[in-house]
Structures are given as C-alpha cells and as structure tokens.
Amino acid sequence: MRRPPVADVTGSSGPQPGYGIGALARRLGVAPATLRDWERRYGIGPGGRSAGGHRRYQPADIARIEYMRRLVLDGMPPGDAARAALASEPASATESMAQAPATEPDLAAWGAGGRSLPLPGQLPRARGLARAALALDGAAIGALLDRALDSGGVVTTWELLAMPVLTAVGERSAADGTCIDVEHLLSAQLLAALSARVGRLAEPLNARTVLLACADEEEHSLPLYALAAALAERDVRTTMLGARVPPTALANTISRIGPAAAFVWSQTAATGDPAKLAGIARQRPPLRLFTAGPGWRGTPPGGQAVGSLPEAVQQACEAVGLA
Fold it and tell me: What is the pTM of this model?
C-alpha cells in the first residue's frame, strides 16, 4: 500500500519534506529569530531548502539543534553547545525528544555562560536553570530539575542548583520589581519535582512520622518540601502541614499523630516568634522540636535550631532512629 504524503507542518500549500523554521521554533519553544541566529553565528541549521528557498529541517538537523538547546539550558555557552552538537552523531528527532545523549559534556570544561542573572561562581547547570526560568519554559525547568535530582539527589540539587537561582531571581525582583512571574513558575516547578520524589516512597523505615509545618502566618513552605523529599530518599516518612500553621493546630496535630520530630519553618522575622512554640517540646508522646529558617528570633524552650538542609536531614534521621 502506498504511504500517504508527509503532512505539511509549515502551513504552505502541498506536502513538503521536513520542518519549516516556524514549526521547529514552536516545537522547541524558541523564537524563529533564535534559530536564524544560531545558523548565522554557529553554522547549525537546516541541511537543505525547499524549491522556493525556505529552510527545511530534516530529522538529523532537528536532533542536533535539540541537543544544542539542551546543552544551552544546562548552562553551556551557545558557541560551545553548537560545536558539541555539530560534532555529535545525531539520533533521530523522535529519540532526541525522548532521551538524553549517551554522554554528558564535561562540566569542568564549560565556559562562563549565563548572562541573564548574576550567578558568579555557580555551576553551569544553575545558569541553564536560570535561562529556562527567565524564558518561562516550564517543561525545560522540570526536565533540568528531574535530571539533577536523578543524578545528584535532593540535597545537592537544592543547595547547588535551586537555591542559587531562587536567590538571584528574588534579588532581581526586589531590585526592580521584575521576575515575579519567573519566581512563581520556578517555585511551582520545584514544588512539583520535590513532591514527586516524596510520592515515590512506598515502604518507610520509620514508625513515627516527622512533622513539617510553617510558623504561624508564614507562607514560604518550599524549603519544607525539600526536606520531605530529602528524607524520602532515605525512606523516612513525613507529614506535611504546609504554610501558615497556627500554634494550636500544630499542638493538636502533635497530640493526634505523635511524631518523632517536628520542624517548623520561618522565613522572616515577622513570623519567627519562638514564644508561640512554648510548650510544644513538652507534649506527649515526647518529640524533638526543631526550628528552621532565617526568620527565627530565638529558640523555643526545649527546641533546637537547624541551619541547613543536610543538618535537618541528619537530625530527622536521628530522631526516628535511623542515623
């Protein structure tokens, strides 16, 4: 049976082989001008043109360009990414969308990269995450975070990738009022990626849970999700109460479920009043109470401050008897 002609993805009349520049730009989530610039500056472009002189991207061309874009999002300077893509053996376009190249480029050899946000001294992958965030490319943000979590784990991803970019975005927002949308999208993607890690925990090792809650009126709960995900990697079950937990609700929850430890997060001094946690550490059954975050103006009676995600993970594991 004769195969039907390839559908025209460019919008021109009649079937045409390959992708036009507009269709490829939509597929990659970039502007057509970016593809033209990459072709002009780095020599990475279509292998041919139509009879009318229009660009036509074939599967091998698409695979190279997708590879280049992934390297750029990971933090590699565009020129280096183009050279790596041109030197690669292209997979089919379908395969390139579904899987990463067989080998990763040497991170130590990557150049300075990222000029969009001030990230001095940070890993190239952090600069790639910043590029994806500024482009409001949720799919790219999610893919970068998943690769980082798979390869480095939650603590490394949080400290070396997520926090530097979140801090830079926050500073930009405070300085000129921009990037609020960027911060919201990046936070949402982080929350989704971290929550997915927590959801994978099937058989926890701890009988008594670890309770996670924000201080009264505190809305910044993302660090607690990082702690929950990091503990899930160690097969430790947590119970998340999230943002704005009144002291009475926290006390009632502790009485009901009897956690081995409770971590209470405060981001700002307005929410970090240790007096509101008075008596929490003396509840029954006994528990270990920890305050976390830069907002606390002291430590409640019987409580202990933790200053970093690795320290919080260690203390939680000790509390449930898994250290």
Answer: 0.69
